Amino acid sequence: MPGQIREPGRTVTSRVLAVLDAFGPDDTDLSLAELCRRTGLAPATAHRLAGELVAWGGLERSGDHHYRIGLRLFEIGMRAPGRYGLSNIALPFLEDLYEVTRENVHLAVRDGHHAVYLHKITGRRAVGAPSRSGGRLPLHATGMGKALLAFSDYELAEETIAAGLSRYTSHTITSPGLLRRALVQIRRRGFSVAAQEYSLGTVSVAAPVLSADGQALAAISVVVRSSRANVARLGPAVRTAAMGISRQLSSTSAASRERVG
Amino acid sequence: MPGQIREPGRTVTSRVLAVLDAFGPDDTDLSLAELCRRTGLAPATAHRLAGELVAWGGLERSGDHHYRIGLRLFEIGMRAPGRYGLSNIALPFLEDLYEVTRENVHLAVRDGHHAVYLHKITGRRAVGAPSRSGGRLPLHATGMGKALLAFSDYELAEETIAAGLSRYTSHTITSPGLLRRALVQIRRRGFSVAAQEYSLGTVSVAAPVLSADGQALAAISVVVRSSRANVARLGPAVRTAAMGISRQLSSTSAASRERVG
Fold first, then answer.
1. Please, which residues bridge with residue B69 across strands?
2. Which intervals hold domain IclR-ED (chains A, B) (predicted)?
3. Among A76, A112, A252, B207, who pairs with B239 as Cys (CB 3.0-4.6 Å)?
4. B44 contacts chain A (CB < 8 A)
């Protein structure tokens, strides 16, 4: 099989995964030429690998030499165990929060220095928010991320600071000292607020889903229009829902095995 | 790279995908031994491929020689384009239906002879339903599936019949003649009803999301407890929501490119 050893230094597996990685969050589909450009693969190799992925269902053809992510990958991705256990328990609580607020409601877990959004509930009246299911946003600039940071080991905050606090708006916390102080306050209050720190016009209020030993397993948030934000009212509601999820998680025997993040 | 050509007749790609396929909908994690059993791979090969998938993030280690699906696959799977476009437009309509009914609300597309569930909204009072996001259920035995069948080419129904109408409960339609008559009635009414045809105790009411030429692109359903089912009330609500999604899909220029199924 000469095609499989033509590019020394890259395993076939890494080339298959590079094809999947080529698809970004905003790509509806990619041409074969674009796939080659993004992966550095030769056209014949990219064509063959994409063909194998199409046969499996992980990619779908979307016109002449164009590909998109297929339903098979969606199905398998939904088996990430954080989705079940955690998601099944959290969903009714998220719906309760949506009913009370009619705003964007989210569930996320931490992955490195990002919050990965497992669920987003949104309605007709909710403000347009940059979050989406399957998306990821930076820890230090979102309510969700600050709730995850505040209830994780101290080292995580220091690593996040060391990795650099990128600025997204004029309200983003980019000073290590300010971030550390904000995290202390979040730990004390039990919920976090991010006011236009990642995107202008929105305020996010978040609270952690905690393990029995007080570590954040996940977090939930409500994102509202800045002009409508009533933090005094939202904070306790979000915190109460997060506590309900925490309690139900720890009362299920599977809780420790379902731990994610 | 001798390890990559040790098992003739299977490409490396097919072996990587076999590792992913080994994870079923109900598997929290799998041991290396179980991975080998399900894939037919030699332990050294399975261990190496799983290691590459862990390094990429598609699998995560969950204890000694145990693996589970990782967040990276969840993120990539969520890029299946049916999710955006269709999902973004459908979500507020689904939330409306949830608010009106407080029951299980779903969005699904067709894949072969199954409905693949893209979204499930559920609350505290909703009946336990076998559906889940990322799951798939048979076309002929669910309200969702019958709505997709009724508004697809006639050949699809005949292929589904030829593939065999499996029985799930004593109410499942297993007679080709009865299924054909049911589909005619669904086309006329604009919505489908499945009363305990896949699982006892639940009734599903579904309606198609239609393209401009009247073909089902997707379908939505509400699943309620049999004892609470008020089809006369649910049918028009589900149909109205589906028509709203159809209208908004066809008014977005991207509609034809986002077509899924």
1. B59
2. 72-251
3. B207
4. no
